[in-house]
Records
---
Amino acid sequence: MTDKLKIGVFGGRRGQTMIDVLLGHPDAKLVAVCDKFEPLLDKVHAKAADKGTDVACYSDFDAFLKHDMDAVVLANYANEHATYAIKCLEHGLHVLSEVLPCETMAQAVALTEAVEKSGKVYAYAENYCYMKHSFEMWKRYQNGDIGEIMYGEGEYIHDCSGIWPSITYGEREHWRNLMHSNFYCTHSLGPLLTISGLRPVRVVGFEVPPEQCMKELGAWSGAGIEMVTLENGAVVKSVHGHLKREPGSVTCQVYGQKGMMESGRFKTQPPLNVYLEGDELCKGEWENYDPEQNIAGEAAKEFTSHGGSDFYATHFFIEKILGRPDGKWSIDVNKAVDMGICGLLAYRSVLNGNTPVEVPNLRNKAEREKWRNDNACTNPAVAGDQLLPRSSFGEPEISDGVYKRVKKLWQEGKKA
């Protein structure tokens, strides 16, 4: 390949890891970055200059969109990815979307149709699918090692209370302050869907009581749980959010007809543990090991953010655009939407007394119509008269003073 793909990044904070990958990738180059916070743009410009690259910096998205480029990485606010992905696709650009794929069911439909109409590559950067343990499970499951899935568990426990000022900036309407318990589900559910390759068909949601300390930081929702039935009848459990433990927990378990795989929960355990039953029932062998990064391994080892998984989300996106075999590991819009809408519908289940909710297959055009105008969410700017409460545990009074205090902590570079 003589000409590198020209790629821009929207979102200079979360986008830093993708920026690093693009600055060193053999088949792509970073050409533009957009962010509303100019100190971040200065940082990116200096970093690119150190690499001998001139990167255009924009604070206005519409101006950024007009830059000469082939693709865009969306690393902006997590509840706005679908809106901007659609704009980019309509502009003829390939899109790599950070978490999450959509905020509403209407956006899920619109995003699916925008990808179909554009003919461009849409990839979902769910990096927890590319963690060493979960990516190895994905490969081994597709190889048939443990047989067909019967049950699985995914867990993403991350108490962000200490860093809340640096990720919400004291903004009352910040998406993290408005989101409901089940919204941020794809770190825990995503690996289970990519490993199995199966579609979700039904979900039951739960919300645990919110942490009282989060009210003092301007947020109010508990950890989320989704019990998801897959198309083969298997059941998987996804749990995520603020619960008290340090370090946090990123784990995955998959039980199949011929064995099981699970990641190590503690540092004293191997990263991956695999049980394979032999010819005799209830007798088998364990494999306990640290998986090798055997796809683009040398390049992947240079990146450590999120266990090196950020590299793969970006790399496979590039491989997909170029039509190469490793592009098969890129997560497409259908799988991304499956992951995201399970959380959206799980919260409907929570609000309706934990009743099961059918998960539509938006690959089928006939199933889209029911959801085309469904804007129900916890964001007043999007929901309109379909606004949902941000927690099933009621809405406490949170004064403006709380957000002023959090903003001051952010400005002073302090933790909560």
---
Amino acid sequence: MRLGVNIDHVATVRQARRGVVPDLVDAALACARAGADSIVCHLREDRRHIQDRDVERLVKESPIPVNLEMSVAPEIVAIALRVRPKQVTLVPERRQELTTEGGLDVARLKRRLALVVSRFHGRGIPASLFIDPEARQIQAAANTGAGLIELHTGAYANARTAAARNRMLCLVTKGASEGQRAGLRVAAGHGLDLHNVRPIASVSAVEELNIGFSIVARALFVGLEEAVREMKAAIR
């Protein structure tokens, strides 16, 4: 099981003072030393945390692959095509949201997404679609030509009862299997932490977990390398 560490909120701390520390390349180096398999960052249209220069530096200087989360806004697509991260993950984006809320409606946006996916594939950049674990979205994702999906685990992570959490876990498990049968590689992420990650990590069809906020929050107390090591141990 691979672990991608999202370092958006390292940038959030830096942007509080509009300074240069903490440095995101230093964060990527620490994650790599601790065993992370990739670095994830989200270049939002409002630039609330990650900046254009951050993406450029991370792609050039990170010792592990960079997975760029992004909307399909033409400006952001153009930046990604120029910078050429190892992977892009297309996500929905609303200006007023605190964090990404739910997955892409691929069934509705299939034609537009297929065009964007094709542009990235033409540059040799794998494109993943961030979607809810629903059969219609999974099949639509396969029909765009994307070879990768990331299942949104927010409903699972935010469930308030054990019964609700088990229902959501079943949906993620079923969705991962459906994705695999459709020829897709499957990742998962959103809202995962040390307390809830193990059941998701046990889903055999999921190859990768992408986790950010809980690792950065834990790092305030134990340091970033130790926080990544703890998460790696938990998913094993």
